[in-house]
Amino acid sequence: MVVNVANTGNVVSSPQEVAERYREFSWHQARGRSDAHAELAARISADAEFCDLLAGSLPAGAKQQPALLLAAVRYLDGPHAELGPRGEAAYGRWREWAIRHWDEVRAVVLRRTARPDEPARCAALLPLLARMPRPLALLEVGSSAGLCLYPDRYRYLYEYGGHREEGRSDSGHGEGRPYADPQGGHSDAGRSDAGHWDASHRYADGGVREEGGAGDSPVAFTCRTSGAAPWGGDGAAVLPGGLPEIVWRGGIGPDPLDPVAAPDDLRWLRALVRPGDEAGAARLSAAVEAVRTAPRPHLVRGDLLDALPGLAARVPAGAALVVFHSAALGALPPARREEFARLVRSLLGERDGGGHWISHEADGVLPGIAAPADRLPQPEGPMPLTLALDGRPVAVTDPYGRRVHWLRVPRP
């Protein structure tokens, strides 16, 4: 092997384990979402020498995530950085470049995390937040760039029923595309009247579209809903009275980013967008613009459990604390997840005025929180995340805020 850099971690992966991880990534994560990444990961999995390099120079666990390596090469402007290598010759060029620049690639992998920020998930969170007592203090566990801390800075298009194509709307905004309000609109974060539910339309096929949010937001998120919402009615997510009033925002993560103040952080987030995902790239850029003039959140670098009590103590009195997380706990050992659930319940129980806990994780990640198997929607594909309020499942969603299926769950 041309390069051999000592692994400074305490745990190592075998080349066979690395190869299997890239095979899994190619088939179960990249396939159907990024042909370039699916092909690249498959070729890496069949490259024994390159897998030996990865196993010998990167610690096991999170630093062996395929998405992290692929993003690091794109971040460093490696070959085919935008389209990804295609074909054997192209892979050879990618491989040669990665080996020749391995010191830089490895440094990025060790410094960064593969957790993107998906602000479109706010479409799943917003109907819950809008029904909570105001004002709110949002605390995100597993925060990346804090874009999910600004649900009041975006615009939303909810579609329910009928046979309309997923991810489309008559207004032409599309899924997470830049948005311009033809009426001019105005938003002011921190005010209960900052946004409103200002349009509703019923289509000839029986479908309903509801539109609203921050009037001057440069981005609109489209979400298709189904099922019966826990507060009654059908799956259309009508917001009562307007956007939530949010007076404080904070987050905890292993590598918190500030894409507004730090151009290099924004560059890394863009590198995490998979080749060919133009909608994702547009969604990220527009969301960053939407929060550019907002006060920056209190982001803390640290362990998700150890840093939580200290950050929660900074929440101003009189604000209802909402602890939330989305696809953030799966990598923790089961015992730590159970400890996390106990910690959140304890913090909220001890706080004057209490608060709420919104979890958005895959089934089985948190003890006792799982969607009823007989109520999962089947025709439109898997819905891998369970949305729960204070430990009670209320919906199943896709990972990107595009679809929400509300569960009719009796209140305790």
Q: Please, could you describe this protein's structure?
A:
The chain is an alpha/beta fold and 412 residues long. It has 2 domains: 15-111, no CATH class; 119-406, no CATH class. Helices cover 30% and strands 19% of the residues. It is built from 11 helices and 12 strands. The protein has helices at 15-30, 35-45, 48-57, 66-75, 88-100, 102-111, 122-129, 263-272, 278-291, 308-312, 334-350, and strands at 136-141, 155-160, 195-202, 208-214, 220-227, 246-253, 298-301, 320-326, 355-362, 385-389, 392-397, 403-406. A 12-stranded mixed sheet has the order 3-4-2-5-12-11-10-9-8-1-6-7, sandwiched between helices. A hairpin with a 5-residue loop joins β11 and β12 (403-406). α1 crosses α3 (48-57) and α4 (66-75) packs across α8. The radius of gyration is 22 Å and the shape is globular. The protein starts with 14 loop residues before the first helix and ends in a 6-residue tail after the last strand. 45% of the residues are buried. Mean pLDDT is 83; it is low at 1-10 and 165-194.
